[in-house]
Amino acid sequence: MKAMLKLVVALAAAMPAMQAFAALNIFACEPEWGALAQELAGDRASVYSATTALQDPHRIEARPSLIARVRSADLVVCTGAELEAGWLPLLFTQSGNAKIQPGTAGFLEAAQYAAKIEIPKIIDRSLGDIHPSGNPHVHLDPRNIAKVAAELGERLARLDPAGADAYKARAASFQERWRAASQRWEQQSARLKGVPVVVYHRDMSYLINWLGLREAGSLEPKPGIPPTPSQLAELVERMKREPARLIVYSAYNDARAAEFLSERARIPVQMLPYTVGGSPRAKDLFGLFEDTVERLLAAVK
Amino acid sequence: MHRTRFMALAFAAALGCCHAAHAADDLKDLREQVRQLKEQYQQRIEALELRLLQAEASAGKAQASAGRAEAAANQAAVQAGSRPAGENALNPAMSLILNGSYANLSQNPNGYRINGFVPAMGAAPQRGLSLGESELAVSANIDPYFRGTLFAALAPDNSISVEEGYIQTIGLSAGWTQGLTVKAGRFRSGVGYLNEIHPHAWDFADAPLATQVFLGGALAEDGIQFKWVAPTDLYVDVGLELGRGRSFPAGPEGGRNKNGFGSGTLSAHAGGDLGASTAWRLGLSQLRTSPQDRVYEDLDSTGTTVRNSFSGASRLWVLDGIVKWSPNGNSAHTSLKLQGEYFRRSEDGSLTYDTGAASLGTRTGSYASRQSGWYVQGAYQFMPRWRVGYRYDRLDSGNTGAGLVASGALAAADFPVLAHYSPSRNTLMADWSPSEFSRLRLQWARDQSRPGAADNQVFLQYITSLGAHGAHRF
């Protein structure tokens, strides 16, 4: 028992004080919210993103590093709408941190502030891994980013009143740049209106909705259920009858199913970054949308 | 020809004969034209007015429907943002685990035991088809301070037991208590790694041999647990548990009749990431109990089944480690999980032979044992839905010194279960998960827990979960 206590003390002492010296520790469940927090908080916050663009946010485990980061967080920003249903509740109970529990100012559920689509009328697991609150991948509509940014800016000011003016200024500047950029992307992609696309998972619905594309099918037969060869063959047949113009998949998806369909149905395929870090150019939120729009325009000639 | 002539005649007549009436007719015509014009304009005005009215009406309609759409959108947003009102709104999250299996065992499970270890631990699996333990989980926040959780196990023999039932603090206020969680009730102890994980989340159909002999399958104490997570980026936690000592390795079954505590556990874990692809956790725990009259059965040299009992001090050390890898941390396609635990136990005290005086008479002598065991296992997901796994179990019953044998009062043959033996087992499994909520598993094991009687075991198992989304524990 004594030996163990010694070991614990030694371990604790050996650990460098790695906590970044910042006014706020922000834990973001997904890179897009990490990037947004960085835009709005600048140097005043140390931002940690629990996942990368190459990881499926549905499938994350409450691993030790996440518990440790949530334990010291002042603000947790997540998508919500059951996207993190498998791991976020565990982080809440295991971190022992009162400041970031649901219902407090320290927890921001982005989907609550966004206009959600695809809210299921029938809630039953036989329909796949559905989200009763609606499609959770809200960040691919820039209008939602603006809405979440407005709320996040206020939260930052509330949690760190000393920096309230700085947050306000940054938020105003971001909203202005964001509005201009969104208009530019909308103009650039005007010719994409009505273009039928096939997706992998229904994580592109907000992008499709924003740009006026048309979803012509998904590789997953039901949300969260990977396609079988026979289901893929069926989709190939359907694409021969009513061809889509483009197949898109996210950086974290397995490209093989999309490429299989692309070859058989002779439809171009395009990987989209999905979130910040999903492609070399998607370094921040602006880069994410710029790259997404350009990839779409390049693929739909 | 005829017609032209008639027309010409009529024209001439009109010019010649009727000249006098010309002016009056003109006036009449003019009036008629004006009347017609008026009429036409009236009609056109009326038509325009009608169109205007219609336009206004449809504009109103459009506005109304726009208004309705907006109201609906607002309502939808409100609905999406809040839970439905009513008595059901605050119902706790519920989930149910349903599982069952088919077992084919080459040895008779009735005589199953893990030799060298007492009491005769090891769950004897049933042959043929059987229902597994159905597990009902209910949990919710109680108030701003506590969260409550219950796991009820509905056993296939129609009995219900409380597997876990505890309250825990939801984040104590900031300051040094940040990171502290206090649990009270019955809970799976944080000793080792696998003990805290419910069987439906295991990678194999049964528990490792070491978990069976050192923790009796699973250690769930009635007690209180303090766990503190350090404020560092490297995950570090320390935990202290004080329990009633209601079950093995404490004893007697149900706990001693005394105030205070019957068991104590101290544990520490460290964990973190190695890049984006690998995550790890290491743990060290010690469990201390003072069993009183912990009974086990044995077959003595006269061939009589006797009940012996141990009283004294039991100390168990557990070292556990787990590493998980997946390319870029994305486990959708490929992933690997390696896990192992090492157990070491020392027990000192007294051993009473034949407590019921059924054979050679009740006698008490000293007792000391140093026993150990370990397992390592790996599960590899080689494509979506499919995994294969291998586990190796090994135990060493070590030295058990019974004073009654050393003094010559009784023979070693009177304690055959205490004879030195090193049980081992090799296990292979393959499982297929149609979705996150269901899994089918085929497992084969060669179990050498009994000397000279290797048991070839085949299990076919299904595990499903319904209701609230399950937790993705590390």
Question: What distinguishing features does this structure have?
Answer:
heterodimer; A: 301 residues; alpha/beta; Rossmann fold; 2 domains; four-stranded parallel β-sheet; 10 helices; globular; B: 474 residues; alpha+beta; Porin; 16-stranded antiparallel β-barrel; 4 helices; elongated
H/E series of chain B, N to C? Answer: HHEEEEEEHEEEEEEEEEHEEE
Measured by DSSP, the beta-strand proportion of chain A falls in 5-15%
Please give the count of helices of chain B: 4
User: Cα-atom Rg of chain B, whole angstroms?
Assistant: 42 Å
CATH topology of the largest domain in chain A: Rossmann fold
Structural account:
The complex is a heterodimer of chains A (301) and B (474). By secondary structure, chain A is α/β, with parallel strands linked by helices. Chain A folds into two domains: 21-184, Rossmann fold (3-Layer(aba) Sandwich), CATH 3.40.50; 191-299, Nitrogenase molybdenum iron protein domain (Rossmann fold), CATH 3.40.50.1980. Chain A has helices spanning 2-14, 31-41, 64-71, 88-95, 142-159, 164-188, 205-211, 229-241, 255-265, 285-299, and strands at residues 24-28, 45-49, 75-78, 107-109, 196-199, 214-218, 246-250, 269-272. In chain A, the strands form two sheets. Chain A has a four-stranded parallel beta sheet, covered by helices on one side. In chain A, strands 6-5-7-8 form a four-stranded parallel beta sheet, with helices on both faces. In chain A, helix 6 (164-188) runs parallel beside helix 10. Chain A is globular and about 60 Å long. The model of chain A is unreliable at 11-20 (pLDDT under 50). With 474 residues, chain B is of the alpha+beta class. Chain B has one domain (91-467): Porin (Beta Barrel), CATH 2.40.160.10. Chain B is elongated. Classes of the chains: A alpha/beta (301), B alpha+beta (474).
